[in-house]
């Protein structure tokens, strides 16, 4: 059996809706091909039949000042999962630090709706953060880390995650304004990087909640 394309993976994961009944709505945000063939993408109902560019523009109107960064030294499969979670929280930007090519499989094509930037070196990444006025917050269970649940995260910040296994490199740790760790109670030394990223992004959103979208449950 051959490997599924990104679009085929998205179709399997999200059955979506079929062709739109005619006459079609007169709306420039809508994609004629999707109206004709159906929309099988992994998007919320609000965005059914919308062009990708229109969805991104609408998301841009209400993105919070949260960024996430992932060190990409080992082509970690968790990167795709972190990107998918970043899409769920509609972050302002995702930053790939290190290798330009990253494992997109787990992202389920959600990176199309995000602003993904590449930084070849730690120095480049730090320069971007300084220019943007964004605080770097490392997420790793290293000496000196404070418990995430008791930390007050800056509103304008970038949560930085390391590769699965080795975690954050020392030069990135040195560049961070603070380190936070998720308190654990079991026997494992660390949790999956994708799971840790989801917890950290959710914690930031609890402290800096965005107005709910129409039809969405308010916190």
UniProtKB/TrEMBL annotation:
Protein's GO biological process: methylation; RNA processing
Stored InterPro entries: Alpha/beta_knot_MTases (IPR029028), rRNA_Methyltransferase (IPR051259), SpoU_MeTrfase (IPR001537), tRNA_m1G_MTases_N (IPR029026)
Region (Disordered): 1-32
GO molecular function list: RNA binding; RNA methyltransferase activity
UniProt keyword Methyltransferase present: yes
Keyword entries, A-Z: Methyltransferase, Transferase
The keyword Transferase is assigned to this record: yes
Pfam families: SpoU_methylase
Domain tRNA/rRNA methyltransferase SpoU type: 66-202
Protein name (database record): rRNA methyltransferase
């Amino acid at each position: 059996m051959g490997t599924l394309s990104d679009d085929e993976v998205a179709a399997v994961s999200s059955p979506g809706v079929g062709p739109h009944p005619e006459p079609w709505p007169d709306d420039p945000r809508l994609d004629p091909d999707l109206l004709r063939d159906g929309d099988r993408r992994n998007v919320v109902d609000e965005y059914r039949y919308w062009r990708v560019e229109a969805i991104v523009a609408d998301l841009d109107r209400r993105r919070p000042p949260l960024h996430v960064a992932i060190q990409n030294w080992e082509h970690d499969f968790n990167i795709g999962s972190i990107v998918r979670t970043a899409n769920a929280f509609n972050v302002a930007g995702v930053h790939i630090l290190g290798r330009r090519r990253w494992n997109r499989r787990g992202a389920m094509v959600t990176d199309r709706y995000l602003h993904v930037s590449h930084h070849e070196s730690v120095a480049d990444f730090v320069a971007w953060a300084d220019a943007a006025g964004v605080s770097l917050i490392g997420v790793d269970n290293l000496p000196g880390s404070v418990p995430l649940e008791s930390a007050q995260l800056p509103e304008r910040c970038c949560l930085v995650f390391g590769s699965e296994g080795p975690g954050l490199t020392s030069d990135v740790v040195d560049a961070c304004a603070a380190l936070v760790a998720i308190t654990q109670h079991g026997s494992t030394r660390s949790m999956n990087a994708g799971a840790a990223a989801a917890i950290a992004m959710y914690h930031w959103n609890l402290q800096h909640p965005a107005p709910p979208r129409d039809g969405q449950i308010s916190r």
